[in-house]
Amino acid sequence: MKEKVLVTVMTYPALSNKHFETVCTAGFREDGSWIRIFPIPYRVLLGSDDDRRYHKWQWIEVDLEQDLAHDRRRESYHIKNIDSLKLLQPIDKRANWDLRLSWVLKNKKVYRNMTELLEETRLNDTSLAVLKPSEIIDVIYEKEDMTKFQEKLKKQKNKYKAELLQMNLFEDEHEMSETFRFAEKVPYKFSYVFTTEDGKQRTLMIEDWETGMLYRNVFQYCHNEKTACHKVREKYMNMAKENIYLFMGTSFEWHMKNASDPYLIIGVFAPPKKDAIQTILDF
After folding, report:
1. For the segment 66-82, what is each residue's pLDDT rounded down to a tens digit?
2. Distance from the CA of 34 to the CA of which of 9, 55, 148, 273 falls in 20 to 30 A?
3. pLDDT (tens digit per residue) in 24-42
4. Model confidence pLDDT, tens digit, residues 187-208
5. Count of CB atoms within 10 A of residue 42's CB?
6. Which stretches of 196-270 are assigned E, i.e. beta strand?
7. Under 8 Å between Cβ of 218 and 228
8. Rg (CA), the chain
9. Is the distance from CB of 61 to CB of 86 less than 8 angstroms?
10. What is the C-alpha separation between 58 and 80, in angstroms, rounded?
């Protein structure tokens, strides 16, 4: 089926055994409901050409299908044919806060109680949601052990080189790029510490693409991990001062294992508090 999707979430690239590297994309259908598109070998298949790449807050049209036998999360779909992907009109990210917020709120529940969200997830396999925290307490960061990642990256690079020689990537035989480079893993994980109306303090990892890119860009400029971490923390603490919403998504692995809290923060939306549409939000 062909669907129009307003892309609002793109997670940082992750290594994949089958597709080399994938990005989880999520967004809203025309009726406002959530939809997840995964897996997408975004940088592998779409290259570095902006004429082919979609971005956050852009409408796309693509042929999708569902495989509930593999992924029971009801919002999950995968691309049936990558050639069906069409880039449509973007929403101006710098100016049009009103329009973007209207899509965040359209025909969906905004959760203010994390316990309630977790209960509904267990009942009906909800796996995407908008959460309005009561308070953002902090942004913390923690050094990650890169050993397993480096081992997997080495294997994937060797596999990619072998596939490149055969020019036989995926079932549809799209050409592989000789200039493709795997995304560098960020050696820190960043998390929001927050509360909701249930009064419980939680710490959840932020998987947003922009988190990783900000760290990398700052580090490439100053070559100082502490400075890069501080800049990420500063940005996300500043966002917390605005009218912040958290886009929540379950991890496939944790959801399949029925974990007590399978959620990650897969996107952060923080329109300015002074925005005119603020008057409609106290519902």
Report:
1. 988 888 899 999 888 88
2. 273
3. 899 999 999 999 998 776 6
4. 999 999 999 999 999 999 999 9
5. 22
6. 201-205, 245-250, 263-269
7. yes
8. 19
9. yes
10. 20
